[in-house]
Structure formats: structure tokens, C-alpha cells
Automatic annotation (TrEMBL), chains A, B:
InterPro entries: ATPase_NBD, ROK, ROK_cs. Pfam families: ROK. Transmembrane segments: none annotated. PANTHER family: BIFUNCTIONAL UDP-N-ACETYLGLUCOSAMINE 2-EPIMERASE_N-ACETYLMANNOSAMINE KINASE (PTHR18964:SF149), ROK (REPRESSOR, ORF, KINASE) FAMILY (PTHR18964). It comes from Kitasatospora putterlickiae. PROSITE patterns: ROK. It comes from the Bacteria. Belongs to the ROK (NagC/XylR) family. This is ROK family protein.
Length: 327, 327
């Protein structure tokens, strides 16, 4: 994996990714190598406080492990799902964790005794792709991970755009089928009701039933589509259409030179990329067609991005990614 | 009118707005007052070179007028419609002027002998609203002038976002009626085929015919709608619906704290603003509803914005607005 090195090398940093179900922490050495990895269920079913305790425990354990090696953690970066106010260091909202306005940066900093940065998981992934992955060389690009739903980080000059309320880039919640399926966000007919992994599986099962040999995830549906299974082809094709439609909207408004697709669905490779490129190009008239490229850092992007936020705290000559685009 | 003053006051500057039919130039004094205004038809029917000559003439005349006053022009700002590469100083494309890749900044600088900035008319208007108008106090807002069609400047920290190819913010060319009316951009069913001034008049005439006492512009249709004329109400209501729909998309992707509506259609006042606010709010679920406010600088915004670009050339301590969001 490409390591988060920096010119002004600042010792060991810890990158922590708070996903919907798992807290993952990676210790990165001074030369960017992975020294140790810790995973722990979030404990979200026991409530928001349990998640905070899990994070504090994982950070403390990682610090202890680093101390034992004689290379103490110099800074901690956290990347969380939900709505994250990066400037204030507050986890504003997460449906997964059931929390509101948790001052996570301060809580971790108090316990850890080192500088702490708090970012958003998708935006942190965008930072990692911008500096070390598929976004290199692109001043303006979109990082679009497709997992449970469709997320997006709008990257400009290596920095993510948060909007006025840290809610920018909600590509997965553009409405493409007015009056369509209910979405977790409260709207109906969102992109994520058709393009996400669960949606692809659900729509396949609606067409083909749920036999014992049937696929159990979107990758299984993709495999069937590759073999020409008509139901799988139909479901896959609709997901591709809706993704291309939403990307055309994003291109019209953001004018990026690249779109970096990541997450589970991007694992389908050319089964996804070839028709997305073709259908996006067909939708664009005056707009400039961006490169549509696979993400390079895959599941590590969250921890890596968090580690980059941590390293930036040590490299004061670099711009502060938490400051967004405000210059 | 609010003047473009600055702390490090730098003498007289010239702001030039290249609109579709008229070149307008305003001399701004050291204290920000308007010293003189010049208007000239672009001459676009005689070709791209004629437009360039018009611009050079208007600049030269304004400079001569300023010299006569004993206050020579210290810098020139140009704001053009079409696609403008602000970093390179090149007018990349304009259907109105029939030009491609005109190095306008260099041409004017050579003739004028003072520093010249080239910007885009909508983005320059956004800069004016950001510093002197309705965008003050908003870190992230959209400036949306509605004239012939719908434009948008995405303003972040007082600076406009250009995208990778200076084509960001094409709100008027989101497709809201697939397969609908042809648009000048080459697509069908764009926002601007329903929300622009000509579209509102045309749709009214399709319903009500073109009697001798009928309205001759969108303001006339608005006046009839205000009186309850059913055809006018129907056309106006559809324009409001489509505008609200496109703004909902923009809010989902940009998360602004304000939307500043300007241009001719915004002159309809609460006939526009009240239902736009109501219908936009009705479309938002998880998104934060932005303030929807009228522009404050009206038709002066282009020249003012251009003058601010010129003044920034003199105030080196301010960030360069032409640098976009690249930090």
C-alpha cells in the first residue's frame, strides 16, 4: 500500500476509521509503513456512549502498542461517518451511532494527550486518493465510494469541500425516481435506493426470487450479470444508468477533470466502468467528459486519510485540510 | 450604490462588463464612487474581431477620460460571458461573440499599459455580491442570476469556484424535462428552457396567444400573474417549480447557507421569492434550508465585480480571486 509519507517527517501517527459497524485503527510509522492494525465492533447497539468508549479504548491500546515499540504516537486522526463538523471537531450526527453533537476531537485529545484531528470518512478517503491515489494530478475531482449507498467527496486542490454545514456532495441523495422507493434519508427515489449494494441485491431478488443458490450480495449479482443472467443484467444496467445520470448532474455543477469510483460496487471493475463511461459520455453535450477511474486505496482510504489529517497537524507548513475551501 | 472600496486604496480602476449585446465600462474612483460610465454595442454581428476592437476602444476612451481628470486608470478588470479561463486570461468560447481562445487579458494589457484581470460575468457578479452585497457573511453561497437563462456562481470564502475547465455551476443546464424543448446548449429540457425570461414569455404566448395588448417580456407575464391571469399563473408557477427543483439539487450537492437570486426575473420580487422559498423548503428533507435572498447589486454586479478583480491586482495582500479554490 502507498504510505502516507511527508517531507517534514513527523514520527508515528494513528489513523482511526469509524465505520458503521467497525472501528479500525492503523499505526503508521515515520516512513509510512503500517506498524499495527486494530479492529473492534463499534458497540453501537449499546448506544452512542459505547461507541465513544470503543474509540477511546482503541486509541489508548494503539498508543500503548506504539509506546512498547519505543515510537510513541505523535498525533491521532479520526474519520467518522455521519455529519462531521471538521472545524469544530464535533461529530454532529450519525444514524449508525445514534449520536448528536459529540465533541469527539476534544474527548480523544484529552485522553490521548497528543494533537487530534477529526474528519469525515468519505472526505478523508478523498484526501487519501488526492495525495496518494487515483486523484493525483487532478485539481478538481470527485471521489465517489459506492457501498451501502453512494457518497461523494468534492476535492479541490487536495482539499475536500464541506459546504456551509458539512453536508456537501450528497450525490446518493439526488432524486432520480420521484415518488420511488423510500430512502433512509427521508426522501423517496434517491440514487442510493438503486445504486447501493443492498439495493442491487434487493432488486435482483424482486425479479428472480431468493433461491438457495442465489447471490447474497451485490458482487454475486455482478457475477451473474457478467455471465449474462437476464435478471442480473437488468438490475445492473439500471444501477449503471442511474449512476451515470447522477454523475452527469455532478459534472454539470462541479466540472471535475476526474471521477474516482470506489467502494464495494467498484470492485466489479469494467462491468461497472465501461458502461458508466459510455453512458456518462452520451449524456454530456457541452460539458467536458472527465476521466472515470477506479480508486486505488480501496478499504484503507479511510484510515489513510485520517492518518494524513494527523500528519498535517505535525506538518504545519501544509495547508489545514479541515479548513475546507475557505483559503 | 455600494462602492468597491478597499483598505489599501489603490486609485482609479476600470470595470468592464462584456454582456451578450452591450459592452459597459465604469470608472471607479479611489473612494469607490462611480466617475464615468460608457456603453457601446458589442458589434458581435461583425464578428469576434469587432468585439475585441469594441473592448479595446471602450478601455482606451475610459483611460483617456480618466487621464483628463488627472486620475489615470491604475488597473482594468474585464468580465465576460461565455467560457473564461481566468488563470490563463483567455476567453475560451462565447456563442454570443463567436469567439474561441481569445487572449483577451494580454490584448487589453498590451494596449492599456496597466495590469488587467479577466473574469467571468456571473462569477464576477458573485464576487461583488460576496463582498458588497447579499452574500456578505456567507462562507458558502450561490449567486444565481436569472436572465435569458439561469446562471450560477458557487462562492466559497468570497471566491468563485470555476471547476477544472471553468464550466462549474451550470445550473441552467440541468435537465429537468428529459426529451423536452431544445436548448441552445445542445441538450433538451434544460432548466433554462423553462425558467429564463424568453422561455416564460414564449410559454405564455403558447397558452394565451400573441394579442396586441399581450405582454412583451417576462416582467409583463409576471404582472399578469400577480393579477391572477390563469395562463400567466400557470406559466409562472411552472417556472417557479423548475427553479425550486434545480435549487434543491444544488443544495444537496453544494450545501450553501444562502442562495442569492438576481437578474431580470428576480425583479418580480415576492411573486418569485415567496413560492421559491416554500417549494424549495418542501423539497428538502435532511438538507439545511438556505436563506433565499434577492441580489443587492442588480445590473451593476458585473462591472463592480470586474472592478474588484482590477482592485485586487493592486491589493496584493488580498487573495487572488482568479485562483479559484485552489488555495
Amino acid at each position: 500500500m502507498t504510505p502516507p509519507t511527508s517531507p517534514a517527517d513527523g514520527g508515528v501517527v494513528l489513523g482511526v476509521d469509524l465505520g458503521g459497524t467497525v472501528v479500525k485503527a492503523v499505526l503508521f510509522g515515520p516512513d509510512g509503513t503500517t506498524l499495527a492494525t486494530t479492529r473492534r465492533p463499534t458497540g453501537a447497539r449499546r448506544g452512542a456512549e459505547a461507541v465513544v468508549e470503543t474509540v477511546l479504548d482503541v486509541v489508548a491500546e494503539s498508543q500503548a502498542a506504539a509506546e512498547e515499540r519505543g515510537t510513541p504516537v505523535r498525533a491521532v486522526g479520526l474519520a467518522s461517518c455521519g455529519i462531521v463538523d471538521e472545524r469544530a471537531g464535533v461529530a454532529v450526527f450519525s444514524a449508525s451511532f445514534g449520536w448528536r453533537d459529540v465533541p469527539l476531537r476534544a474527548l480523544v485529545a484529552e485522553r490521548a494527550g497528543v494533537p487530534v484531528a477529526l474528519g469525515h470518512d468519505v472526505r478523508a478517503g478523498g484526501i487519501a486518493e488526492a495525495r496518494l491515489g487515483a486523484g493525483r494530478g487532478h485539481e478538481v475531482f470527485l471521489f465517489v465510494p459506492i457501498g451501502t449507498g453512494v457518497g461523494a467527496a468534492v476535492m479541490v486542490g487536495g482539499r475536500p469541500f464541506g459546504g456551509a454545514h458539512w453536508q456537501a456532495g450528497e450525490l446518493g441523495h439526488l432524486i432520480v425516481r420521484p415518488g420511488g422507493e423510500s430512502c433512509g434519508c427521508g426522501q423517496r427515489g434517491c440514487v442510493s435506493t438503486i445504486v447501493g449494494g443492498p439495493a442491487v441485491l434487493r432488486h435482483y431478488r424482486e425479479l428472480a426470487g431468493t433461491g438457495p443458490d442465489g447471490p447474497t450480495d451485490a458482487a454475486g449479482v455482478a457475477a451473474l450479470a457478467r455471465k449474462g443472467d437476464p435478471d442480473a443484467v437488468r438490475v445492473w444496467s439500471e444501477a449503471v444508468d442511474v449512476l451515470a445520470e447522477s454523475l452527469a448532474v455532478a459534472v454539470t455543477l462541479f466540472d471535475p477533470s476526474a471521477i474516482v469510483l470506489g467502494g464495494g460496487l467498484a470492485g466489479a471493475g469494467e462491468l461497472l466502468f465501461a458502461p458508466v463511461r459510455e453512458r456518462l459520455a452520451a449524456r454530456l453535450v457541452f460539458q467536458v467528459m472527465p476521466e472515470v477511474r477506479p480508486a486505488e486505496l480501496a478499504y484503507e482510504a479511510g484510515c489513510l486519510g485520517a492518518a494524513l489529517l494527523a500528519r498535517d497537524l505535525l506538518d504545519r507548513d501544509l495547508p489545514d485540510p479541515a479548513a475546507g475551501w475557505s483559503g
